[in-house]
UniProtKB/TrEMBL annotation:
Membrane spanning stretches: 7-25
PANTHER family in the record: MEMBRANE FUSION SUBUNIT OF EMRAB-TOLC MULTIDRUG EFFLUX PUMP (PTHR30386), TRANSPORT PROTEIN COMB (PTHR30386:SF26)
Species, as recorded: Hydrogenimonas thermophila
GO cellular component: membrane
Record-given protein name: Membrane fusion protein, multidrug efflux system
Signal peptide: none
Domain of life: Bacteria
UniProt subcellular location: Membrane
One Gene Ontology biological process: transmembrane transport
Coiled-coil regions listed in the entry: 91-240
Main location: membrane
Membrane topology recorded in Swiss-Prot or TrEMBL: Single-pass membrane protein
InterPro entries registered for this protein in UniProt: MdtA-like_BSH, MFP
A Pfam family this chain is assigned to: BSH_RND
Length: 371
């Protein structure tokens, strides 16, 4: 009797373990199972300042919730503000200098234009006066020739006692007066020639002085370029002052606080790590030997190590086009002919139906249903 009971027990155990083995193998045949799975977040960011300086405020603690745009930390902006004041002073000085140069240019331009106009009017008036004098001189010389002939004729008549001496004296007086008038007009022409030469020089000098206007224009242009550079520097320094404040780029929780205030930091030094607990997904490193039958949309069962007695559901969202080792910093060297075949793993991203109780970094075991 006891032998028969023992036989039944052995047969029962064999059937039990056979069932367990069959269930295990069947489960693994219809599912790709891997424990190389982790809960990850799409939004985990290490926050840092875009400028270096002394951190004077750290407003948040680890595990504290923050909202997008909330101020997290502050660098002392005093040095940058001093630099900004210097640039503002330089900009104002340049603006005043440019304004003075523009006024000087306009005054000089008007003055030179007036000088040119006056010189042109003087030259025209002198030429007209010269032309008039030349005409009068020619007319007077014609009269003088006639008076010379009359004087000669009257002298002969006087010698013959045909006329009175007074008549001869009148002709001689008129002739001498006309000769002196001609000399005076010719002297006046010489004076006018000197005056027209002066007027022409004044006109040329006004034109030459226009170079000073061009030099002023070049100086103004250079000052304007300098002003643009100073304004660009002002924009840069204002940006840097704004960069002394560190804001949260999205809603989340402070995952890590790297420093305490006060402390001098360099540009790019980590200040906070911020994580969004709502942007979670599961990432699996799946062996190439288990890849068959797996595709986008395959249903997934997930068991998270830290959450007991609960099974999460999900679907395959994407499968990496290359293995995880493709972009390794130390690529495999097979040039020598030596080769050891290694099991390649591919990253599979799983979209979770629920994230309740999950945190980034948790380990998990997944079973992806093969299609």
């Amino acid at each position: 009797m006891s032998k028969r009971i023992g036989t039944f027990i052995i047969i029962g155990l064999i059937l039990f373990f056979s069932y367990i083995g069959y269930s295990y193998l069947h489960y693994r045949s219809v599912n790709a199972v891997s424990d190389a799975a982790f809960i990850k977040s799409d939004k985990i960011s290490t926050l840092s300042f875009k400028v270096g300086g002394k951190v004077i405020e750290m407003k948040k603690l680890e595990n504290e919730e923050v909202k997008k745009g909330e101020l997290l930390a502050v660098i002392d902006p005093i040095d940058l503000k001093i630099a900004k004041d210097k640039i503002l002073y330089s900009i104002e000085s340049l603006k005043k200098s440019i304004e003075v140069l523009k006024l000087k240019k306009e005054r000089l331009k008007k003055s030179l234009q007036l000088q040119r106009e006056i010189a042109k009017i003087d030259i025209k008036a002198i030429k007209q006066e010269k032309d008039s004098l030349h005409f009068n001189i020619e007319a007077s010389k014609t009269r003088l020739k006639k008076l010379d002939l009359d004087l000669k004729r009257y002298k002969n008549m006087l010698e013959q006692n045909l006329i009175a001496s007074t008549e001869y004296e009148n002709i001689k007086t008129n002739r001498d007066a006309l000769s002196k008038q001609i000399e005076a007009m010719e002297k006046k022409i010489d004076e006018l020639n000197v005056n027209i030469s002066k007027a022409k020089k004044a006109y040329k000098l006004a034109i030459v002085n226009e170079k000073e206007i061009k030099e002023l224009e070049k100086t103004i242009e250079a000052q304007n370029e300098n002003l643009k550079l100073q304004k660009k520097s002002l924009e840069d320094i204002e940006n840097k002052i704004e960069y002394t404040k560190l804001y949260a780029p999205f809603d989340g929780i402070i995952a890590k606080k790297f420093i305490d205030a006060p402390r001098v930091v360099k540009k790019g030094s980590p200040i906070y790590a911020l994580a969004d607990p709502k942007s979670l997904y599961c990432e699996v490193l799946l062996s190439e030997k288990k890849m068959y039958g797996i595709k986008d949309g395959s249903s997934v069962t997930i068991k998270v190590d830290a959450v007991k007695d609960r099974v999460y559901k999900g679907v395959v969202e994407s499968i990496a086009p290359t293995s995880a080792s493709t972009f390794s910093l130390v690529p495999r060297d097979i040039a020598s002919g030596e080769f050891t075949k290694l099991d390649q793993r591919f990253i599979v991203r799983i979209k979770l139906d629920s994230i309740d109780g999950l945190r980034a970094g948790m380990g998990a075991t997944v079973a992806i249903k093969r299609n």
